[in-house]
Amino acid sequence: MPVNIPDLLPAKSLLEAENVFVMGESRAVTQDIRPLRILILNLMPLKIKTETHLLRVLSNTPLQVEVELLITSTHTPKNTPSQHLISFYKTFDEIKGKNYDGFIITGAPVELLDFEKVTYWNELQKIMDWSKTHVTSTLHICWGAQAGLYHHYGIPKHELPAKLFGVFEHFVYDPTEPLVRGFDDLFWAPHSRYTEVRKEDIEKVDNLILLADSEEAGPYIILSKDRSQVFITGHPEYDKLTLGEEYQRDQKKGLSTAIPKNYYLNDDPSKEAVVRWRSHAQLLYSNWLNYYVYQSTPYDWS
Q: What is the dihedral angle through the alpha carbons of 255, 110, 268, 252, rounded to the nearest 10 degrees?
């Protein structure tokens, strides 16, 4: 079954051009089925790109997925047309009385700020607290993972000496865990961040499980023991061009960002990017939807 999204959302036509199976809401309402209701809090500046990335990886499942988009009310996005936000996004006050099967909190380019100095931090804390009683499973991405680990468990983030940027090899500690079912012993995933969480801090928290790790990139997948919270420190949803576009933006800004590691063929930016992470990204999201959302959520939330 496809992901169910608004008919006019730009991601719909972009994904259809890739032959990704999506369904407009006008067709979806004709099907007598209980879709999974997934809420996405989009904190990324290029919101249309992020929508497309996430909807692509949510679409590869036999389950029908109904998506709602959320923004914070305490921060005004500058890189997305206001009409797009008005047409497709809701604020927390509009949805706080609802329940959702799954919830995704994206990353945000605010890593070098203390959490308490982020303009929407108080609002995000309220949303994360709300998710514990109104959502079956919440998946946190990159800075969203660091924010969730800090808010729920007091785990700090640490600034890195240089930007961790590229595609890195990871390994799984427990291959029997449903979230990584079908994963290879070693797999690749993209990262782009200036800060990290540390293994020793995670291991101090009895309620957390470190599921996947990397010699270079550090902890990658962390779970709460009841599987209601999943923390992903990288960006498995990224498409082929994302790291390259970010590298070019950093170059134009005069930043000293190194070439994204293991991304271009032979690490040569004049050559084509090589996608090493797509299959595991699809597995990660499909497994999350199936085992942590669909198999766990009540049919009738009331």
A: -40
Catalytic residues: 142, 235, 237
CB atoms within 10 A of CB 208: 21
Show binding-site residues. Answer: 163, 192, 249
Residue set of the binding site for substrate: 163, 192, 249
Q: What is the pLDDT of residue 77?
A: 82
pTM: 0.89
**Residue 3: HSE in the Cβ half-sphere, 13 Å Cα cutoff:** 28
- Residue bearing the bigger pLDDT, 153 or 8: 153
Q: If pLDDT is split at 50, 70 and 90, which confidence band does 26 have? A: low
> Nearest 5°: CA angle at 167, between 164 and 169?
105
**What dihedral do alpha carbons 259, 263, 264, 267 form, nearest 10°?**
60
The residue to which tokens 């797009």 are assigned: 84
CATH fold, domain 3-159+195-240+282-294, is: Rossmann fold (3.40.50)
Calpha distance 108→161 (Å, rounded): 19
The answer to whether 219 and 210 are in contact (CB under 8 A) is yes
State pLDDT tens for residues 191-201: 999 999 999 99
DSSP state of 160: E
pLDDT of residue 11: 65
Which pLDDT band, with edges at 50, 70 and 90, does 28 fall under? very low
d(CA 263, CA 58): 23
